[in-house]
Amino acid sequence: MTLNKTIRNVTERIIARSADSRAAYLGRIRDAAATGPARAHLNCGNQAHAYAATGPDKDTLAAERAPNLGIITAYNDMLSAHQPFERYPDLIRQAARAHGATAQVAAGVPAMCDGVTQGRAGMELSLFSRDVIAMAAAVGLSHDTFDAALCLGVCDKIVPGLVIAAATFGHLPVVFVPAGPMPSGLPNDEKARVRQEFAAGKSSRAELMAAEMASYHGPGTCTFYGTANTNQMLMEFMGLHLPGASFVPPGTPLRDALTRAATRRALEITALGNAYCPVGQVLDEKAFVNGIVGLMATGGSTNLVLHLPAMAAAAGIRLDIDDFADISAVTPLMARVYPNGLADVNHFHAAGGLGFLIRELLAAGLLHEDVLTVAGGGLSAYGEEPVLAGDDLSWTPGAAQSLNDKILRPQSAPFQSTGGLCALDGNLGRAVIKVSAVAEDRRVIEAPVRIFHDQASVKAAFRAGAFTQDTIIVVRFQGPGANGMPELHGLTPVLSVLQERGLRVALVTDGRMSGASGKVPAAIHVSPEAADGGPLARLCDGDVVRLDAVAGALDVLTGGALDRPPARPDLSAGEHGCGRELFHLFRSAAGAAGAAAFVGGGPVA
């Protein structure tokens, strides 16, 4: 199939925009690769330190003839998605030994759960944790004793941080290894109903707790289609997982077989063999375009609009919000997974999943097939699914058609003709909105604003009955420079209740909404942020704002509103407590949302 004209044009302009920085990046990774396997250049004392605790692997490591894999793990047993990684290093070491090679844990990186920190001070560290993860992974890989790496991570900031680190060590082959989703629990619509009833005072805390515990109930990734599962989709669309690996449940024979296969593949693609596949070449302009197409076709998390530019910048590639908007305009929405529907990722996977999507999008000319992937060959391999027969793992063609058209549809009959995200531009700045779950009659909201400086104040106003007319709720001073850009997911039940009462409501913020943001229109990541004197800082209660996701506009209509001096609230209370004092440098160095300007994913030169 001929490549779609818009996809081709967007790719070409990214290549042109990135020409100098990408060329410099590729030059750096060529130089790093040219010296050969790093261990050969270590002196005996360096090597002895690196091998001292490796037991049965000592002789193999000292011989320097077999590949050594570095494992970067985000294991902890507080994150359900990462708890299965506890046993992966032993499984990987055993798999490596079976092929005459070795593997070592190079680094453990932090992994925090936004579900735990929602609405708490710890959430103000969340976005910056991506850059901490990237730097921590770099510390591990800086020992320079590895021929390839395996990255074990799933959730919100962890995968983007690991990709940034992998790109920084772009001369190394890197395979990403997932853990898989937990079994389906309480249906997502029932969970949302209980949350809304609790927000409205119609259900008890005990009822809310029972619903939440029935939703999040075992090892594995949370099953809604938020940032964690969007990350997993991206790793397949961008060729960093083995095909079909994303949504295989933990603790199953197939999951273990895929982990062993990922180990074997990492060993095959080192510079010691004949299939050298450095990750810096996998992460090219076409791979990032494929990732954005996947984001749009699935209605994925808005957080990736922040992460993808930072990931690309680490590989010398410049992405712009217009790239997302233009790709969205030609990419059909083919999946309905909560919060964009009632199904979860297990239902999506059973209906045909990523393999079906990738085959359909390739057939429509919406993806680049001619890309380098860790599996070898082009992207068409990702239209297959893994099958385990006894101890033999193989890949076979996936479902030829959707097995449930309420969840997954072909590109010829999508849920909507355009993707899940839109860019907004206007006199209030630039923003992004997720529209895949927003009803068409709610995509244009014009109403007076109510101004707040934190989500707790919005909840207090709701409890006091302050919202009785159509309202656009503005929550400002929530950007990266103000307080680290926490998610405002705690507002979802409040906004949903107001909308269900018949009010036309929307959210406008320089902060983030959750990767699970849904049916209430929300203009997020507004830039420039209020703390930098952006237009949001000049609004007052009663100003009329128009959020138009159809025309792609975000404007204040009240004359003279932007001539006022900006508000300058005291933000010092957010500089201390729960570790926030340690992140002062991050806040002061943060740039515009979406511009790849956070510390570890800074703008490419």
Write a compact overview of the structure shown:
With 605 residues, the chain is α/β, with parallel strands linked by helices. It is built from 22 helices and 14 strands. The two termini are 36 Å apart.
Description:
There is one protein chain. The protein has about 600 residues and is α/β, with parallel strands linked by helices. The chain folds into 3 domains: about 5-185 and about 220-395, no CATH class; about 190-215, no CATH class; about 420-570, IlvD/EDD C-terminal domain-like (Glucose Oxidase, domain 1), CATH 3.50.30.80. Helices cover about 35% and strands about 15% of the residues. The strands form 3 sheets. An 8-stranded mixed beta sheet has the order 7-8-12-11-10-9-13-14. Strands 2-1-3-4 form a 4-stranded parallel beta sheet, sandwiched between helices. Helix 9 (about 190-200) crosses helix 21. The protein starts with a helix and ends in a 16-residue tail after the last helix.
